[in-house]
Amino acid sequence: MNQRTLTVVAVLLLLACALPFLVSNYRTFQFTLVLVYAIALLGLNILTGYNGQISLGHGAFYAIGAYTAAILMDRFGVPYWATLPVAGAVCLAVGFLFGLPALRLEGLYLALATFALGVSMPQLLKYHHFEKWTGGVQGIVITKPDPPFGLPLNPDQWLYYFTLAVMVLMFVLAWNLLRGRVGRAMVAIRDHHIAAEAMGINTAMVKSLTFGVSAFYTGVAGALGAIAIQFVAPDSFNIFLSIVFLVGIAIGGLASIPGAIYGALFIQFVPNIADEISKAAPWAVFGIFMIGFVYVMPLGVNGAIRMLLARLGRKAQNNRSTAGVTRPTINSPEEV
Amino acid sequence: MKLSLLPVATLLAAALAAPSALAQKKYDPGASDKEIKIGNINPYSGPASAYGTIGKVIGAYFKKINDEGGINGRKINFISVDDGYSPPKTVEMARKLVEQDEVLVLFQPLGTPPNSAIHKYMNAKKVPQLFVATGATKWNDPMNFPWTMGWQPNYQTEGMIYAQHILKTRPNAKIGILYQNDDYGKDYVKGFKDGLGAKASMIVKEVSYEVADPTVDSQIVQLQSAGADTLFNVTTPKFAAQAIRKAYDIGWNPLHYLNQVSASVGSVLTPAGLDKSVGLISTQYFKDPTDKAWANDAAMKEWTAFMKKYYPEGNLTDAFNVYGYMVSQTLVQVLKQAGDNLTRENVMKQAASLKNFELPMFLPGIRINTSATDFAPIEQEQLIRFDGKEWVRFGEILGK
Amino acid sequence: MDALIHQVLAGLATGGIYASVALALVMIYQATHLVNFAQGELAMFCTYLAWTLINAGFGYWPAFLLTVGLAFVLGVVIERVVIRPVENSPVLAVVVVFIGLLVILNSIAVWIYTGTIKTFPSPFPTEPLFGNKFMSSHEIGAIVVTLIMLLLLYAFFRFTPLGLAMRAAAQNPASAKLVGIRVGWMLALGWGLAAAIGAVAGMMVAPIVFLEPNMMGGILLYAFAAALVGGVDSPGGAVFGGFLVGVLENVLGAFVIGNELKLAVALVLIIGVLVVKPSGFFGKVHITRV
Known about the structure:
Shape of chain A: globular
Number of domains of chain B: 2
Order of helices and strands of chain A: HHHHHHEHHHHEHHHH
Low-confidence stretches of chain A: 322-336
Radius of gyration of chain B: 21 Å
Order of helices and strands of chain B: HEEHEHEHEHEHEHEHEHEHHEHEE
Mean pLDDT of chain B: 88
Mean pLDDT of chain A: 84
Radius of gyration of chain A: 20 Å
Strand order of the largest sheet of chain A: 1-2
Helix content of chain A: over 70%
Largest sheet of chain B: 4 strands, parallel
Number of strands of chain B: 13
CATH superfamily of the largest domain in chain B: Response regulator
CATH class of the largest domain in chain B: Alpha Beta
CATH architecture of the largest domain in chain B: 3-Layer(aba) Sandwich
Oligomer: heterotrimer
Structural class of chain B: alpha/beta
Distance between the termini of chain B: 25 Å
Low-confidence stretches of chain B: 1-6, 14-22
CATH topology of chain A: ABC transporter involved in vitamin B12 uptake, BtuC
Distance between the termini of chain A: 16 Å
CATH class of chain A: Mainly Alpha
Largest interface: A-C, 46 and 43 residues
CATH architecture of chain A: Orthogonal Bundle
Helix content of chain B: 40-55%
Number of strands of chain A: 2
């Protein structure tokens, strides 16, 4: 990360911190959901964007995370913050185990396997033998956490900051992971798995691990989402959730960390805009938005911003070639 | 609404309440001299979008009320939003309506999971979650949730009605149950089993289906193989029609109880085949627009005229459009009774003091009664049997 | 035993539904090497077109043929207008366009035709064949239609120059271009044919499940599984996969695990098969050259 990116990130973080005092509680709640989705999308992006495995079932991991948190809070009285690592760990294990056989499958077949997971999840949650834990079709209602230490915040603001902190932590971890050895191995497998294997990368291991890590992220997001919504039910996690996640990363920008945030903004707010435009056919408007975004920005919002910056940078450099403007790095292989 | 349709008791109550209310106008957020803001959440998108028409017909009815001068001189500002039947979105939308749009009441949010998701929130905020569009029993809990009220007859009570009918008329029945694997299906089955009580062993087989299943053919075959001679059919319209047809096609002729949800001649029995539907037993509380028995009924004509004028794109064979019409009329009555005291508390109080309130589209004899301890507006239904052309009512009005 | 036979036959009837939609998926895959998520909704929409035509006074067969023609045109137009601009974008961008199409078509159908179910006529007799109580004439007829479509498709790809050109264009666009195949039009043609097959499938499915905007949602899922288990590049495999999935879910649901989890277990079994045989029962094994 160079100086300039660091400044941008710092400014954005400051803005994010100030947000709850600038907008209403309802908006704060919406932005909390954006942060939650951003974590989930980052998880999917690690798998799909960086490792090239398409998952049509990440909603299932989101659901597992959410139910883990809800069951721990509701049945065992575990404090909300302690449920996150557990939810993540459960998803890591499930993801890794699912990844082991699934990595034999490629492309479409992997998509089908994950799709099957996504489709079956609501039915598993409803299954009567699990009802004692999951609450069956009725779901589980949980309580919203109050701010600790007598902080002068309302529960919405507190939850926002809590989620923001978790998100920043998760993003930094991802950033570290992806630019390190493991990250390069993931990308190598995506770009040419045979060459990667020839170079001594244990592709099976890396792919399963990636699946686990990806599920870990999405699971933590699911837990946070459950705490924010205060309710889990099988209907919250249908196959459309998984599909929306996929739309989110494609529109945010594949294999990019900030892309997760753009994608999260899209999946949180665009359906609301669509609903305001047309009551008769809100999905039609949503679909048009989806297709429109892809037309204008085939590489996602992040790709478009990068290209724009690159163009501006080049122009600036042409204009004052002696001024020594730092040119943003683009097209480094793991980031486009 | 025509004055003549109001029962005398409510008129008197309104007349008595009016002078004092006039003296001091009281408003909560969402109400003013000019307008009453009403929020609503409906699945306009997604897999449950067939219910979206309820939100649209409610909007159309309020437009009619506004064209006729509004309620006590106030126009209704109806804000309806989409949640796609996804509980997280419902929470977000409920917060939008309550905190940003500041509606007086949240009216008719649809579906058990979406309503469960906001149950606690609405009661914590003390904003009425009024006449929710689901038949679960839990909405009738004024002690713990004084801000939530159902409207339609609940599924468990209806299940119990069928059980009692079986006990009375077919004590040796072998019962097969087909139900949708969700809260709605399970509620019916629970009521049904409670109704059978000690005789629950009469059930020889229970099978479920998922909404995503293409057909229920396999389930019907399973029930037949189990030797059932009585079928309790808890399915939504598409699957109900499939079940009726499949049972007939495989030569299985059980005594067939069909839940009220699918008791529509036009959208279930006609697709299934009227000849295949002869002998079906169900319950009903309102007039089915596709039942010829009501073709010349005054209330039916009024509804049809309303539909043509205010919701011309709406489907005249769709029972949801009658449902939305009736529930809007109930809310209008509550708001009329509230007079100029438009606080959230008073709206709940008025909703809980409907006495023998009859709607023109109700079956004769069905009434709404609520009280501070009874948050279940419609608790009456009548058994009906299909004779190949129309539903024939039989027996007394059941329930309280 | 009787119950088992009955379940298997009922499974074949629903399997026929999956098979016909799976054929459309295979068609589009043959032509474009992509799986079109909007295929089911496209078929549903075309079935509504047929319904509108029949209600406007057309006879069944004229409406049928007209709908197949319209579906073909619709497919070509969608490829030319909607898919063309993202042709060279990443795969996921194209997937987003498919999902966009899916929600648009679904939403418009609800808007125009409302969500209430509609009956769709069958061209086959209402009396069951040979007085059997297991399958209706329409179900048998629909299976026959699917098999005819399969034969036509097989012959088309195997014996006609156009079919060969289409396969070439999908498999290796660059080389195909060099030998003079107009790759762009081949894609459009593939879309048109897939839409036409989908329309036939929709018109065969609708009399069984009833016509409504979400009619294809569940079916597409099974069809997707069917196409992959049979081998996504093999029409015969797709039909076989359809029947297999239909029978499997019925037998499992009725006798082994109950209805609650039958979909989940059927899918797990399919994945199991794929792990052992990664390109499906009848799919070609692709060897990658380094």
